[in-house]
Amino acid sequence: MATENNKNIKYPTRFDVRQQSKKLIDDTKKNSIISIIHNFLNAVKIKHS
Amino acid sequence: MRAVIIGTDFMKDTDGSFKTIETNTGIGLEVAVEKHIDSGSLTNFILNNNFEEVHFIYSLSNLLVTELDNPEDNIDISQPVEMVGVNLATFISSSVCAPNNIQYIQHTVDVDSVTIPFIEDSDNKLIIRVSYDTTALIDDTYARDNWEFLKLMYDTNPNSIPKCYINDEELGIDSIGTILRDNGNHPNYCIKKRITPSDNKVYPILYKINTLEELEQIKSNLEVDEYVQEYIYNTDELLYNKTFHYRSVDLVYGPELNSLNLYLYQKTNVLPIVESCDFDFNNKVQLWDRARYISKIINGTGDVSVKLDADETTKVVMLDNTIKTANNLNINDKIKSISGTSDSIEINTQNSSSLSDVLENYFVTSSTLITKDVFDYYGPIISIELDNGSKFSDVPHGQIFKVEDSYVKLCQYERLKAGDNLILINNENNTMETKTIQNIEYSIENFEAYRIDVEPNDLFLSMEETENQSIYAILTHNYDYDCQLITCTAGFTPYIGVDGYRCVDGAYGTYPNQQADYGCGQAQPACKRVNGPGPQYSPWVGGYPPYNDYLSCTAMGIYSSCNANIVQSVIYNNYCNYSKPSDINLKKNVVYSHTNSRGIKIYTFEFIDLFVKEQKEFYDDDYSGKWQGVLAQELLGTNYEDCLNLREDGYFEVNYEKLNMNLEKIQ
């Protein structure tokens, strides 16, 4: 299937071609992210009020 | 109170800070909510605000739970991917509203809808919108337009977004600086579009920029709607050896734009990281390595209804034993094919498709190339190596034959696993042999591919791709088939699970865990040929269906004796091909019934008279009466698109097996 413009790189397992998800349980990371979202929403509110 | 659910994406930079990439509305609530959500805070929010009604506005695509398997789950890859889990709507309805006597009302909109139905607001209502609304500020300004979002965030805190260069008088940002980002062997900058295109093949363009001059050149050559952004790569941030992003799903409510975090998760890209990816002469990441760095799933032809049969290098065996690559095939070419000794027109070993019967009854014959359509394919390719050294490859839905429990079964490449025995033809002496898969590999490729149809036999032979050896051909079934092999693990007792789909139906491949999964009766391997002319079967009147009735089916294709009870779908109208006509244009009196746990809308309907008449005349299939199933068109644009097949007559059919459902006759 490889063509001249197409280097045929192989991956050994099925799982390598799936996206995976995992719950974020780190509170520090959570707080950082939620803080940015609050800042975003606050900025929207200020700009459009 | 009105509320909208937003999904905001983040990367964690090497300095420990989180950088927001974009925010989205109309998002797919793809995770199994019960695994992620803090149900207490959502329940408290609803109770504390004294809501008596919760309205939930969504489209089908919003609610598909497609949370993918973690490697630790040890999923059997030969089995269909399960897409199960409780979506947010079901969760709010059953776990939040119902226990607290709060009325739950859902409102569905079309998948491609950009507006929502009007629902009058009041203090006792919580109106949650998931679907996109072009008249809403967050949707139309900050989710749709990356520049608006980035500028707002930059002005709030420059460190909250990746370094950017946007050349615009009003929304311009230039925080790229003069120190190049060092991501080692990985891309360090990308070009994006102001409005993110749905096609992931080109954007974002990923670069490994080595000098400031190169960076300046890229900045100066931007198109008017492009911008440059540093690409955040952090070796501390790998999950299953893949890069990932964080997604925060938040309920934004009320005029003050307050928010309640529903859940936060990490989502990987498709492919794992390698030490050094490939770049072209302009230092762009090559096509086949893009999936390591971007999150969107590769999309084949971009048209789910297109099922491919060959690519430009597929070596098809002609009737005279010469080889033609698929790109050189012409309409009316005579190709080598395989059939059986019965009066059917494909392999048909009368009452059995046991390997021994197939071996005894097959013969070499010819087919003619009827159609050949050309497509550009960009997506995964599965390559297999057999124990004799033969190598073959195909798109994931490519269909070949494997031997399982002494039966010959049709199998898609994506469900193959090491140790499977495949049917090959020795092209020198036409003997049929089985060889064992030693190794399976995957790649992302871009090539010209073809949808071909060969008739009257749907089988053709693809020669091995081994460079110095060309003896074996793999028996391949063109995808636009009018027959199908079904293996049922005949659970005996009709059962409708709590989620609404039947445990017993024609199953492609086997479902060894069917009993455990669906509460079926004793599972027994059984295999049969379906979808074709045959006698009417005795109706199921309770208890076990009559034995072996379907053996008199003279349909095309491989089938076998069934030494267990037949599946219910056979009882229904002598038709259990798992691809069923479900085009909205073939139906009348369509009435919405309910939405199942995976967000798929179920309807009752009748088939139009002309279709019923034709099916009866040509196939002796009875499509009269009232049925229950999905509308094929509603799966377009959803994660279930892959369950669609576009028939030659232009109508969609739905692979109900892949959808884990049945097309059921209910009256």
Task: Write a concise synopsis of the structure shown.
Chain A is mainly α. Chain A contains one helix and one strand, in the order βα.
Description:
The complex is a heterodimer of chains A (49) and B (667). Chain A is mainly α and 49 residues long. Chain A has one helix and one strand, in the order βα. The longest helix of chain A is centred in the C-terminal third of the chain and has 22 residues, at 27-48. Chain B has 667 residues and is mainly β. Among the domains of chain B are: 310-481, Hedgehog/Intein (Hint) domain (Endonuclease - Pi-scei, Chain A, domain 1, Beta Complex), CATH 2.170.16.10; 488-665, no CATH class. Chain B is 12% helix and 33% strand. In chain B, a hairpin with an 8-residue loop joins strand 24 (459-463) and strand 25 (472-477). The longest helix of chain B has 11 residues, at 146-156. The two termini of chain B are 43 Å apart. Classes of the chains: A mainly alpha (49), B mainly beta (667). At the A-B interface, strand 1 and helix 1 of A face strand 1, strand 2, helix 4, helix 5 and strand 12 of B.
List its traits.
heterodimer, A: 49 residues, mainly alpha, 1 helix, 6% strand, elongated, disordered N terminus, B: 667 residues, mainly beta, Endonuclease - Pi-scei, Chain A, domain 1, 10-stranded antiparallel β-sheet, 8-stranded mixed β-sheet, 11 helices, 34 strands
